[in-house]
Amino acid sequence: MALPLLPHEFFGVNCCGCLVEIIGEETQYVCNECEAVIPAEEVHRAVMEIESTEATCPHCGHVNRISGLATVEAFVCVRCGCGVAL
């Protein structure tokens, strides 16, 4: 499962970058703008706090999890690629 898009400013800083997961001996999370390293524990805690919702694609029946939103009015299905308006 991919890391959701996490803005660096979500961690209380004034930065327009987003976190990128760097996998090596130890996984690191680095801002793509200012190159700050965010501890993995903080990133994991932030991911658990993100609102999300689920919506079923009427075309293929796949349940899509949509992170960062409590409600959704439209989305593109990750399985079939069709646009869906709810």
Principal-axes geometry comes out as elongated
What is the straight-line distance between the termini? 25 Å
Helix content: 10-25%
Oligomer: single chain
Order of helices and strands: EEEHEEEE
Low-confidence stretches: none
Report the portion of residues in β strands: 25-35%
Described by strand count, sense and barrel closure, the largest sheet is: 3 strands, antiparallel
Counted by DSSP, the helix tally is: 1
Radius of gyration: 15 Å
Overall average residue pLDDT = 89
The assigned structural class equals mainly beta
Number of domains: 2
Sequence of strands across the biggest β-sheet = 1-2-3
Q: How many beta strands in the DSSP annotation?
A: 7
Layout of strands and helices, then pairs:
Blueprint: E1 19-22, E2 28-31, E3 37-38, H1 40-49, E4 52-56, E5 63-67, E6 74-76, E7 83-85
Antiparallel strand pairs: 1-2, 2-3, 4-5, 6-7
Description:
There is one protein chain. By secondary structure, the protein is mainly beta. The protein has one helix at residues 40-49, and strands spanning 19-22, 28-31, 37-38, 52-56, 63-67, 74-76, 83-85. Helices cover 12% and strands 30% of the residues. A hairpin with a 5-residue loop joins strand 2 and strand 3. The chain has 2 domains: 8-49, no CATH class; 52-85. The strands form 3 sheets. It has a 3-stranded antiparallel beta sheet. A two-stranded antiparallel ribbon has the order 4-5.
Features:
2 domains, 3-stranded antiparallel β-sheet, two-stranded antiparallel sheet, 86 residues, mainly beta
Q: In a nutshell, what does this entry contain?
A:
The mean pLDDT is 89. The protein contains one helix and seven strands, in the order βββαββββ. Helices cover 12% and strands 30% of the residues.
